[in-house]
Design a protein that fits this description.
By secondary structure, the protein is mainly beta. It has one helix at about 50-60; strands at about 10-15, 45, 65-80, 85-90, 100-110, 115-125, 145-150, 155-160, 170, 190, 195-200, 200-210, 215-225, 230-235, 245-255. The protein has one helix and 15 strands; from the N terminus they run ββαβββββββββββββ.
Length: about 270
């Protein structure tokens, strides 16, 4: 299981309202759902050869200069560039709240000595294209959001400029972001089934439970030639609590030859 340098998975709804564009003033920030982190055992259990392989690949992946992940199905968001500018995002749920849309993520993280130094998470709304001549619903105009996270601080802002530029960032408490920096991204936790080989790919299935009781099956695909994780899918079972629907999310991983430049943070003021 890859912990992404945080208790994974957690569930939060983050809401903040700016009183005017590029101005930080009194804000409203509330967590509308309790966090649900993965149950972390003392160590992995299950098939020993699979655990050994997973640990070796995790070590190699954690030593890469940077990794880029394309992830779908984990986040929802809403953001509107107006007066006032508003944005909100939520992760770890299968349901899409009213006013939100699903968001595809591009997560880029830089590493040094096996630990995440910083990461960005670009949330791009998934909306249907509006046919010519038809009336586009308001949700089509939801703006992207970018998160920027380091070990000491986290930030979020609405993408308003060309080439994915964020005019200014708001400071965020770590409870308002889904990922953390400062630790290794991949760590072996959970119950490991025997690995399965499919061509150049080795498939590892891990099961564990979130602290709210929902069971998760994580399926990781390893590129054996590169000794790197290539893709993962997560299947979350229905839980007993309200809103605990069954859902899934997935990601594809690409190792980068060098770490990109970290964003310049201009605080909203």
């Amino acid at each position: 299981m890859h912990l992404r340098a945080r208790p994974l998975p957690s569930r939060r709804t983050r809401w903040r309202r700016s009183l005017r564009p590029a101005v930080a003033a009194c804000v409203l920030a509330s967590v509308l759902a309790a966090g649900a982190s993965a149950v972390l055992a003392a160590g992995p259990t299950g098939d020993a050869p699979t655990i050994a392989l997973f640990r070796a690949v995790a070590s190699n992946t954690n030593l890469q200069p940077a990794i880029r992940i394309a992830q779908a199905g984990y986040m929802t968001e809403t953001a509107h560039v107006a007066t006032p500018t508003t944005f909100s995002y939520r992760w770890g749920y299968g349901l899409v709240p009213d006013g939100f849309v699903r968001a595809d993520e591009t997560i880029t993280y830089a590493q040094l000595h096996g630990r995440v130094v910083w990461l960005t998470d670009l949330l791009v709304p998934v909306v249907a294209k509006c046919p010519p001549g038809s009336h586009c619903p308001a949700r089509v105009h939801v703006a992207p959001i970018e998160l920027f996270i380091t070990k000491p601080a986290a930030f979020a802002g609405v993408v308003t400029g060309p080439h994915g530029a964020v005019a200014c960032f708001e400071r965020e408490p770590f409870t308002n972001v889904p990922y953390r920096a400062g630790g290794p991204w991949w760590t072996a936790v959970g119950d490991f089934r025997p690995k399965v080989t499919r061509g150049n790919q080795t498939i590892v299935t891990i099961t564990y439970s979130w602290s709210d009781g929902q069971h998760v099956a994580e399926i990781d695909s390893i590129d054996m030639a590169k000794q790197l994780f290539a893709a993962s899918s997560f299947h979350v079972a229905r839980g007993a609590g309200p809103g605990q629907v069954a859902f899934g999310f997935s990601q594809r991983d690409t190792a980068l030859p060098f770490a990109p430049r970290a964003p310049n943070v201009t605080r909203c003021r």
